[in-house]
Structure prediction request, 148 residues.
Amino acid sequence: MFGSIVVGTDGSETAKTAVRYAIDLARQLSARLQVVSAYEPVPDSRLRNEKVEVPKDLQWMVNPREDVLILLEEAADEARTAGVPSVETFARQGDAADAILDVAEEQRSDLIVVGNKGMTGAKRFLLGSVPNKVSHHAPCSVLVVRTT
Prediction:
């Protein structure tokens, strides 16, 4: 039924709950898990300043995706520890919802798991939260996890 599952994370508690649900589902279904995180571009001046502060042999690690890569690796480690057979990570520049939707489409995923944060009250009509956008534009089924 669900051979591959996409879940997005930004490290928030809501996202961590969604990731745990996705991990449990992937483990139970022996599905492939794809963990996605988006990042915004970092100005070159900030990167140059940060590189000066670290030893020369570690300067290669200072990049616009550094925090996202660490976040993705933590989620992947959690999934592997839980017994998920196949875990992939995707760091994408730009909007979080677009990153999730793009990976789901590119990977021909069967399910997207997102948390419900941001879908309450009038804001859901005005701001276009990540779960709202994903649920309206997904190329596959979407599971909205109640996280609040």
Observations:
- Residues 31 and 136 are 24 Å apart (CA to CA).
